What does this fold into?
Amino acid sequence: MYDFEKYEKLIEDRLSPYRYHHSMCVAKKARELAEKHGVDPDKAYLAGILHDVTKETDDAEQRRLIELYEPMTDLEMNNKKVYHQMSGAAFVQHELGITDPDIISGIRYHTTGRENMTLFEMIIYLADFTSADRDYPDVDIMRKKTDENLLDGMLYSLSYTITSIVKQERQIHPDTINCYNYIVGVNHD
It folds into this structure.
């Protein structure tokens, strides 16, 4: 159904060897999580391949691409760490012509998360957080929680992310806060 070789070549040409390797690790983890949770594994694999497609594109070009398709808030303009999820979703949809809403939203929210995340979005978010190439502190705990229960993985990852951002005295995207509140609510229902 999907021409994986075409998209693998695309990201190999657009990204550094490090980022290409990371994208392929995320694709593999996304497929694994999708199979485990009854989600289309090919679609998850493709979203994993493409999730960082614009990660190494210069900031001005990413902003141009984003602003063609959606307005940016002041917080987003001042937080370059979220550019690539927004520009990546725009690039995949409008430059590559991929219109599957799961793939678009999986890429769009793979960094911040969002309230009412779909199972597919959680899979892409957590595949990025737990792929085989990741080696941050607590990654083994994160992988274990994700493998046992996606909601527990989401809660742990969001707590980890929010704590890290607070320690760096950076702004937290509202989507991340809303995602945390949503996951806490779902996890305690």
In short: The radius of gyration is 16 Å. The first helix runs from residue 4 to 14. The chain has a mean pLDDT of 95. Residues 132 and 155 are 20 Å apart (CA to CA).
